[in-house]
Amino acid sequence: MSDTPPQDAETTPEAADRSPSDREGAPPAEAVARAEELRRRLTEYNIAYFERDQPLVPDAVYDSLMRELQALEARYPSLVTPDSPTQRAGAPASPLFAPVEHAIPMLSIDNVTDREGLMAWHERVARTLAEAGAGEPEFICEPKYDGLAVSIRYEKGVYVQAATRGDGRVGEDVTPNVATIEVIPGVLRPPHPDVLEVRGEVYMPISEFESLNERMLAEGKPTFANPRNTAAGSLRQKDPAVTASRHLSFWSYQLGETEGVPTFATARETFDYLAERGLPVNPIIEVHDDIEAAHRYCLDRQEHRYELDYDIDGAVVKVNGLAHRALLGATSKAPRWAIAYKFPPEEKTTLLKDIMVSIGRTGRATPFAVLEPVNVGGSTVSMATLHNEDQVRLKDVRPGDTVIVRKAGDVIPEVVGPVLELRPPDSRPWSFPRNCPCCGTPLVRHEGDANTYCPNPACPCRVEQGIAYFAGRSAMDIEGLGEETVHLLVTEGLVSDPADLYSLRAEDLLAFRGWKEKSVNSLLRAIDESRNRPLARLLIGLGIEHLGPTGAEALARRFGSLEAIMEASPEEIAAVEGIGPVIAESVVSYFSDPHNREVVHKLKAAGVRTDIVENADLPQTLAGRSVVVTGTLENFSREEAEAAIKARGGRSPGSVSKRTFAVVVGENPGESKLSKARDLGVPILDEAGFVRLLETGESPGD
After folding, report:
1. Where does CATH 3.40.50.10190 sit in the chain?
2. Sheet (strand 195-203) strand order
């Protein structure tokens, strides 16, 4: 949801098209009723979004209703009330936290959605400054972060307080929670002003959000909808330890109340000052001397938005000169010297036609939404995950609902929730099926587990998914063995488990319509070559729950053969670096199953190697260390660089934290990772330094 209405009420196009007498006429009864309805709905949406972190409608719906209310108030000024959403920023502070009154109100920013809107804003700014004889403005351009606005106060350089925006005048005291955010210093770098209040955005890095949801799924708990709501909910925890566990971050965007701070001429100077004090300042902020260049910045941010490790929903264009800002002033809720250029919404509404259930290789029954196709995030979406039975119930989505669908970059589309106001009157809650839709076996759900399973190991869906996973690129990498081919082989009775692949004959495959000798020989050759894959890939291909590539490599290095792993105790497996009791129990449980042991026996009989350990003799120079790679290296692909790190006992996560040992930087690196590494003092290595690190475990600075 947008933090602000799209434009000042006094400057909407509808208002400009009316004469003063039109605008001052007595409003008709229908206008009065409609304005009252819009105020009620928008207030409800604001409370849900800002206070409960649970948006009821997509941004586009909210903005449309806000525009309608602005137009009504512009035409009939008597409709404007002090508590109208057009006159306030955000929503009242939650009673769960102590109130904090902002010495200087935390205003919102008006927004536009296209070049025409940006140029109209520029025309108003330029006209006002010209009338004051103040000259042409220049502009400072920033990303528009999709997070939670906060104010952080330092006295004599020491962190003393943090508060949310609230309604712009009174916010919530979240001092202990914000103190847990690693990038926010407890003490500023000197010289220390008497008072420095910095305002900015708390956000959850996308990599942290994805890791959090992976943990929630692994623990059978409901996942979170999006990074913005998760960041807001994480910050509003009564226990700061929960906030700390979420690894939030922060970007500064302006000063609030100050005492003893130097006088600045431009906003750029204030950013430089904040960075010198040790506060996070985004490296992709730019100054431009004309509005066309500012517009190009907005388009560039839109094009590259998914390269960042944080969500943005637009770009912000501000007048750079502080004297110019003083001349332009502000309305009751937004400065006239700033405008947000909002990107097309990444949340769309569409019809949920049906809810179906798919069966995976482990038997997990996953509900998914069948949607009326809709373009979201640059691609057409017709299906979206609903995760599990609890998520469907919590979101209360039903066939026939108009639902909000979210997609960012390559992330799997997800149904955020229903638009309740559009729900059909005869709607009924959806019930999870009792039997497997694939084989008819009764589904089971164990106590304490959020997931439901088909327990039948011979279920055709389980068999097909398991074989396709075994043949996948990250496992045995059998070229040409996709899901369609696997479905054909299982349906025709040629394959019932992965080991059966190694018994396929050319004459069996040539009997299929459309199969030629060349494609058959190619597939059989790929299957034959897979007999000699490393042990870690074989472990992945077996589909052991919770066991990922890093854990598989660790087990392969520690035990050396599949036979040794099968005979190891839970304690021996759990003692391996990066494994732990949950994965250990899963591994032991898998190999305790007679069916799984039979498949392993068949694989060995078919000549599949179970003792090839890749890079077994490599020294573990990076054992227990995290090395982040960003940008393009000359002699390593991204996958090769990460594999080299893991082969030496290290980890290669997607984000930088204080636990990161080093960051390897190639051409066109991710600016957010580079900036965070500098802020945290993490060593930054070029490719030569990376090679030395692999060989010795030492960075050039050691």
Report:
1. 626-696
2. 158-164, 148-155, 195-203, 249-259
**CA atoms within 13 Å, Cβ hemisphere of 272:** 11
Q: CA 340, CA 343: separation in Å to the nearest integer?
A: 9
CA atoms within 13 A on the CB side of 555: 35
Find how far residue 594's CA is from the centre of its chain: 40
Q: Which two tokens stand for residue 27?
A: 């409003």
CB 329 within 8 Å of CB 105? no
Nearest to 458 by CA among 315, 361, 576, 357: 361
Q: What residues pair up with 662 in beta bridges, in sequence order? A: 627
- DSSP letters along 281-295, please? --TT-EEESSHHHHH
DSSP 500-550: GGGG--HHHHHTSTT--HHHHHHHHHHHHHGGG--HHHHHHHTT-TT--HH
Q: The domain 9-87: what is its CATH number?
A: 1.10.287.610
For residue range 470-481, list pLDDT tens digits in order: 999 889 999 999
Per the structure block, which two tokens stand in for 187?
């003490």
Mean pLDDT of 59-77: 78
- We find that the CATH architecture of domain 111-342 is 2-Layer Sandwich (3.30)
- Tens digit of pLDDT for each residue in 168-218? 888 889 999 999 998 999 999 999 999 999 999 999 998 888 888 777 766
Beta strands in 76-194 (DSSP E): 99-101, 111-112, 139-145, 148-155, 158-164, 170-172
Q: Is the CB of residue 50 less than 8 Å from the CB of residue 168?
A: no
Q: Are 652 and 627 in contact (CB under 8 A)?
A: yes
* Region(s) of the chain under CATH 1.10.150.20: 460-605
Q: Is 156 an annotated catalytic residue?
A: no
Where in the chain do CATH 3.30.470.30 domains reside?
A: 111-342
CB burial class (10 A; 0-12, 13-18, 19+) of residue 328? buried
- Of 144, 348, 407, 676, which residue is the catalytic one? 144
Q: What are the phi and psi torsion angles at 379 (to 5°)?
A: -140, 160
Q: How far is CA 531 from the centre of its chain?
A: 38
The segment(s) of the chain belonging to CATH 1.10.287.610 are 9-87
Q: Where in the chain is the domain with CATH 2.40.50.140?
A: 347-434
Amino acid letter, residue 616: A
Reported as type and span, the H/E element at residue 131 is helix 115-131
Please give the backbone phi and psi of residue 171, each rounded to the nearest 5 degrees, phi first: -115, -170
CATH of the structural domain 460-605, one choice from 1.10.150.20, 3.30.360.10, 3.40.640.10, 1.20.1250.20: 1.10.150.20
What would the two tokens of residue 243 be?
A: 């906030």
347-434: CATH number? 2.40.50.140
Distance from the Cα of residue 453 to its chain's centroid: 28
**Residue 142 has which token pair?**
């920033």
Confidence of residue 49 (pLDDT cuts 50, 70, 90): low
Are the beta carbons of 97 and 173 closer than 8 angstroms? yes
Q: How far is CA 100 from CA 148, 164, 193, 232, in A?
A: 16, 8, 21, 17
Residue 16: what are its φ and ψ, rounded to 5°?
Answer: -65, -25
The CATH number fitting domain 626-696, selected from 3.40.50.10190, 2.40.420.20, 3.30.1330.60, 3.40.50.300: 3.40.50.10190
pLDDT tens-digit profile of 257-276?
999 999 999 999 999 999 99
Give me the long-range contacts of 554-563 (CB less than 8 A, separation at least 24).
554/578, 554/579, 555/579, 555/587, 556/613, 556/614, 557/613, 557/616, 557/649, 560/535, 560/611, 560/613, 560/616, 561/535, 561/610, 561/611, 562/535, 562/538, 562/600, 562/610, 562/611, 563/610, 563/611
